[in-house]
Amino acid sequence: MRALEDATLEIEGAFETRGDRTRLLTTLEDDIDDSVKPIILGKMGQIRSEIRDLKSYYDLESITVSSRRHISTKLAILAIDLTECLSQYLRSYGEVPEAERATLDERVSRLEALVNEASKLIVSNRRG
Known about the structure:
Layout: H1 2-14, H2 37-57, H3 67-83, H4 98-124
Helix pairs in contact: 1-2, 3-4
């Protein structure tokens, strides 16, 4: 049920205007007719209503998820993923040219440092 709830929220979010938060490495093709979007959103609302009814009927408990722990976990996984983008680990995709290795590694290391800085902020600052 949680996966269904998460998916409905993700689908609803896909129709929201993103403003300046556009993707840089992925182009999303808006290939759903505008006339269908409100119908889909209505269906997502119906699904969420059914989930609400099931929760109430079966007295299902909600879980509490720490945003700090959730974000910290995501950032830790991203740091690992970035480490795997260093030139020495990209050999399975083909050899990184010697002239590019230092530049690539420096740039990836900067990204990894930023992710680690954000992670430290999340871990060290707790509300309440």
